[in-house]
Amino acid sequence: MTDMEIVAERGAWRSGFEERLLTAYRGVGCSEPVARALLERAVRGIDDWTLATDGTGWIAVGVGEDNGVTVGRIHDLTVAGPQGRAWAERWCAERGARRVQVRLTGGPGVFADYPVRGQNRMRVVAGRPELPPGLTVRRLREEEYPRWYAREEAAYIADIVRAGALTAREAKEKSDRDFAEHLPQGFLTPGHAFYAMEAGGLVVGTGWVNHGFLPGVTFGFSLEVHEEHRGKGYGRAAMAVGEWATRQGGDEALMFNVFGGNEVAMGLYDSTGFAVVDEFRSMDL
How much is the pTM? Predict the structure, then answer.
């Protein structure tokens, strides 16, 4: 590989980069409005990225703070062979990065050895989803919200730690920020709905969704079966509740995040047709 050169003019690269992202989003079933909304999210801050080329391909990188840690981000890499990744990692390390993150569409490529930290998955739901026999769904009551919140927060922190990207302290700090961002008015936050799933007179799980998260898309922040009721087939039932809630909110597709390290959930989502829209991987330097 010849020496990499930092370049200021990025028109040719950017048009190709954006078209590759759109093609990947369309390829997993995203409608055009959703694909473009995802693209808008993916290119936030793009003018601050550093762009380099060796004449055969491109590398786009940046650094930022994440939970008080300097993190490098490889936004794009089309230089063939391992040399391009090595240059990007070295560039990040020279600027104090202790970890490198990538956001991928279309498979891991040269980042296959980076551990998976999370995935966004999505699919169009049935036109008239039916709830499983024996399962009823009702809105969570406001007096149930504090207990729900405490349980949800603990599960979220545990998922982050299991994914391997953050320590328990960092995960708690991230949890506090994320809940404050997504639920600024708590139980009464507009666009958000909370559900209790009941079977045999018992609450076996809960759901939390955000309607209109993207055009025509409901985001399932949580479709949780309580630990004491797992292994009874309620996992698939929870997915059916998510589809039902999507249509209740007037949307047509359900999207959600799954953390790395949760192979059981990933297997369930594979079997129920939820495609990986984008995947997040990272490696400590």
Answer: 0.86
